[in-house]
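User: I'm new to structure prediction. If I give you an amino acid sequence, what do you actually give back? Let's try with this one:
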Amino acid sequence: MSPRIAITTGEPAGIGPDLCRALAGHAFAAELVLVGDPQLLAERARAANQPPLREYHPDSAAQDGTLSVLPVRLNTPAHAGRLDSANAGYVLQTLDRALQGCLDNEFQALVTAPVHKGIINEAGIPFTGHTEYLADRSASEQVVMMLAAPGLRVALATTHLPLAEVPAAITRDSLEATLRCLHRELRQRFAIPDPHILVAGLNPHAGESGYLGREEIEVLEPVIRRLQQQGMQLTGPLPADTLFTPPWLQQADAVLAMYHDQGLPVLKHMGFGQSVNITLGLPFIRTSVDHGTALDKAGSGTASTGSLLAAIRLAIELAT
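Assistant: Good question. You get back a string of structure tokens that encode the predicted 3D arrangement of the chain. For your 320 residues, that looks like this:
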């Protein structure tokens, strides 16, 4: 059977609705279901001279190449480029509906358009990101954020934290759980029998034998040694400034960076617009774009669909 992929349309003032409507010009080996406000999508379609969408019917069989909309109504009219905290609840409702559909096997994967964390928090709703929200709502014990571009996969030991809080967040237990999840998902979801993972150090020069920090000696090295003894192919901790060079990356299946901006600038430099965000450890497949809401481009028809197309293609590949 063809997979049915749910796509949340993201922040209504951003480029998410534009990108989702642009999918009408592409064919996929799956049925795509946009989760969002039909009127908003129709307004963006008129601006781009696109045909109307049909309404999603869950009882019908999934059909390749079809695009439909599952209605979730805005709380207040949305205007391209103008954030409104009144629609923060709407954004989360689209996520909740799509997530529940994945848990119920109504959808075989979830793809998410970008949301705006700041405006959701401004509405009084604590929100640090898709990764943490989906993990909490699906009661997942351990999830890992990983971005993939052609030739490089980068997973994160910590995600959306202030830099000052990162060292305390990396414990032996948390690091071991992250590495186990990453190793398992590379084997099961990506069909890599014996993945080789490079582990970045936290400090410059990976601590330089304790002179620039002791986290490598006291936390990273003991965990890496223990998992190596259990058969995992791990190398590290390695200095991040040399880890991301061809001699190292050519022998690796993934890199584990210690914090968000240690690993992702390199990946986005290599493949921005073509890279995909994947949440590992969820009970369903979730992929996303590698960019934000781009409020300045919303409604203009100039936003690139490259990352969304890559996210959908990877979701279909993993689902089948």
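You can read the tokens as a compact description of the fold. Here is one thing that stands out. The longest strand covers residues 31-36.
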